[in-house]
Structure formats: C-alpha cells, structure tokens
Amino acid sequence: MKKPLILVTNDDGITAPGIKNLIDVARQIGEVVVVAPDSPQSGMGHAITIHHPLRLKESKIFGPDIPAYECSGTPVDCVKLAKNVLLKDREVDLCVSGINHGSNSSINIIYSGTLSAAMEASLEGIPSIGFSLLDFSYHADFEQAKPYIKQLMEYVLDKGIGDGNLLNVNIPNIPFEEIKGMKVCRQANARWVEEFEEKLDPHGQKYYWLTGKFVNKDEGHDTDVWALDNGYISVVPSMHDLTNYKAIPMLSDIETVPTP
Amino acid sequence: MKKPLILVTNDDGITAPGIKNLIDVARQIGEVVVVAPDSPQSGMGHAITIHHPLRLKESKIFGPDIPAYECSGTPVDCVKLAKNVLLKDREVDLCVSGINHGSNSSINIIYSGTLSAAMEASLEGIPSIGFSLLDFSYHADFEQAKPYIKQLMEYVLDKGIGDGNLLNVNIPNIPFEEIKGMKVCRQANARWVEEFEEKLDPHGQKYYWLTGKFVNKDEGHDTDVWALDNGYISVVPSMHDLTNYKAIPMLSDIETVPTP
C-alpha cells in the first residue's frame, strides 16, 4: 500500500521541539513534508501575508530524509504555499499542526496559528488535526502524548472527518499512566480577560504589553476545558462556518425594517 | 436619554475613507471613540501582538470632537486596548468595524481584520457589527450604504443581538435605488483558490506573491453570496464557537479506541 502523504506545520517555528516530536510520529505512518514558519508565529490567528512577498527556504534540520522548508510567512501562508506550490501536483492525505507549546482549548482556537494552519488545510480539502500540549516550556516532555497522537492520525487517515472539518486536540500535561483517554467534546465558552502592562520608554512615551488571564465560566461537563481538567485528552471537531444559525430566525425582523 | 458609547475601528487603517464614512454615521447616533490601526492590516485575521509592545497615539484626524487613537497593532489589538485601557471604566454600547474596502462575505470572515475586530468586541460582551462595501477602490462611494448602516446600528442598540454574537454585513456596490433591502443569511460555503505568482529577486532567489480567486460552489439561496449577487445587503449573524456539533456523535468511536 502507498504511504499517505502528511504535511506537517506549526506556529512556534521550525526549530521548536514540538514540531520535531510531531514529525517523529508522522514518519512512522507516512511520507512527511514539513513547511513551517522561520520564526515564532504564536497568536497570528488566521493572518495571511498580502502586502509582502513570501519566501521558502529548504532546511535539513530534520535530517536528509525529511523534505523541510522554512517559510517567511504565517502558519496559514505555510499551508497555502505547501498545497499550491510545493505539493501542487500531489494529493495531501493529512495535515498535522503542532505540537503547540501551550493550550489551544476553547476560544484559543481563534487566536492560534497552530489551529489556523490546520483550518486552512481543512478548507483546502485536507483532513487536518491541530495538536497542543498544556506545557509552555521549551523543555516540555511530549513523550506521553505520542501514542495518542499516532492513534488519532491513523483514525483520521482511516475514517476521515468530513469536508471542511478539523480536530482540535489538546493534551494535558500529566504522566502517560494518568491520562484517562480521549474525549470528543465542544469548545468551552471561555475567554481571555486582558490586563495590559503599561510602561514608559526612555523618551517618556507609554507603551503596552498584552497580558491576560483565561477565564472559564462554562460549567458544562461536555467541554474541552472540563476534559483537560479531568485528565482527558480533548478532541473538538471544528470547522470554518461562523454562522450563528440559531440567530437567523431571531433577526428576521431586520428584513422588514422599511427602506430608508 | 444618555447617548450610547460607540467604539469605531477597522482594518484598512485610520486614514482609510471607509472608517471616515462609518464615523459620519456613528456620530449621528452616539458618542464616538475611534481606535484604529496606524497602517493597513487587511488579512490579519484574529492575530494579536504578543512579542512586541503596543503603542497608542492620539489623533485629530476626525476633528476636535472625536477622540481618536492610532494603534501600532492589529485590529484585534485595537479592540483589546480600547476596552481594557482607554475605556476601561466605561460601558461600550456598540462596536462597529469598517467600512471595509472590499467583500467580507463567506469564508472571508476568517481572514478579515475588520470582522476579527468585531468578533473580539463581541467576545468582550460588546454587541458589534462589521461593515464591508463590495468596492476595493480608495475612491469607493459609501453614500448608498449609509442609511442602511444607520438602521442596523439603531437596531442593534435597541434590540441587541445576544451574547458573543456579531453581525457580518456586506453591501453590494450598486446605486441606492437598486438595493432591494437587507437579507439575514448564512455564510456561503465558498473558498479561495490560490495561485501564487513566482518571481526571482536580483540575487536569483525565488519569492512568491499570494493571489487567488474566490470560488463559490454553494448554490443555496439562503447565503450571503447569493444575497449580494441579487441586490441585497447581506446580514450574517456570526459567533466565535467553531465546534462542529454535528460531528460530535459521529466521532464518538475515538473515545473507545483502546488505550495505546
């Protein structure tokens, strides 16, 4: 049987330990091509590069057997270039993004470059998974996550997840034997509460650092935040349709407002 | 009655004609505060600035009566700074973003800085609307849109649109008398097909410009693309929950995969 073609990307940049660990798993399953940002791109969301040209540079960072490219753009740019330039004559069977250093549960999906890359792949018709480990450290230990990551890749390659869909997978930072399994869940209704740090530069001008804390008031036991807090790996099937279908009938009186 | 407080932002930057036109309408209804990027931020999606500090600079561009600030960050940064620094002791009644020069219908919502700013406001609990006119030109004529924009602002201030919701409003580029009215609809299932332009720099190195065409294969008459093609202003109630609820039961067998 032909090996599946797996595109690997991330948002922490091509030198981050997380992507190295993801490649370790992906190469056990398929043929791997890596296209990842040449610098950290956390928090880039679904940004694309319109006003500058983009560059791709071959990299041997993962050894002679793994074709790898570093890209000057955002995670979404990486996926667009991979699909439409580097791999334009081939079918990509799976895109995996990560392993992100830190959580992408709940609302983080819209700020996350990791998940936006996976979403872009899903828009291109490529089944895709974004992986995150709840440990921001550069020296995070990804070992406990690997067997689950392999299972999920095999599951998606085998069964598919439907057009335009992706999986947002978060892994708790606990030892392997304490992980209770995987839970398919919804995105918790949580958000960031910002607290900007105000400083003065040497010229007496103010500037601000974005900081904040994650606040979850969603008490459901069917959410990703609950699953992670309770020792599960959270798997949220996600998509790109932001329509609030429930609100459509509620707003129908907008249509009957008389013409100005 | 106290005038409502309206936060105005955009992604084309504080000097774009679109935001000037939006302010013209907003000041008829309420007290206006403007926080907008100091440079064009199209395609920034939901990007936030983590690795650099942010700056705010007061601007008199809209005259002495309109407090306005230009921000060194993304559209989402603008909203976060407005809510948490400039207006932290006040309640913002409405956030309007735009008027964007060009369409933000369908999948454009995830790439658009205009809509991401509106979504950020909605996450902060502020009812919000993103406005776009289907004309990329700097000299676009926003006049035909203004009566509808005013109606929509009044509607949202009067009735609300529920927590965490925003309206994605697109306005066709046709004369006022040809606009048939407003249609509440869903986001069309369309996407961009990329065609990168490959060039060589003076050193013989390749670089790529992102270009693409918008392809809509969604034939529904209940979509924003259909509404715009047929002379309506499209109003899509949108939200930040990307969970694909239909897929949750379909994927439940992931949970029963035996522990590795």
Structural commentary:
Two copies of one chain form a homodimer. Chain A has helices spanning 17-29, 75-86, 108-111, 113-123, 146-159, 224-229, 247-250; strands spanning 5-9, 31-37, 56-59, 68-71, 94-101, 128-133, 165-171, 181-184, 190-194, 197-200, 206-209, 212-216, 232-239. The first copy, chain A, is of the alpha/beta class. Chain A has one domain (5-188, 221-240): 3-Layer(aba) Sandwich (Stationary-phase Survival Protein Sure Homolog, Chain: A). The relative contact order of chain A is 0.14. The interface between A and B is large, with 84 and 84 residues.
Provide the number of structural domains of chain A.
Answer: 1
Overall body shape of chain A: globular
How are the strands of the biggest sheet of chain A laid out side by side? 3-4-2-1-5-6-7-13-8
Write the element-wise H/E pattern of chain A from the N-terminal end onward. EHEEEHEHHEHEEEEEEHEH
Biggest interface between chains: A-B, 84 and 84 residues
Radius of gyration of chain A (CA) equals 20 Å
Portion of residues in beta strands of chain A equals 25-35%
| Uncertain ranges of chain A | none
Query: Helical element count of chain A?
Result: 7
Q: Count the strands of chain A? A: 13
Average residue pLDDT of chain A: 93
The second-level CATH architecture of chain A is 3-Layer(aba) Sandwich
**Sheet with most strands of chain A:** 9 strands, mixed
Please estimate the helix content of chain A: 10-25%
Q: Please, what is the oligomeric state?
A: homodimer
Per CATH, the class of chain A reads Alpha Beta
For the record, what is the CATH homologous superfamily label of chain A? Answer: Survival protein SurE-like phosphatase/nucleotidase
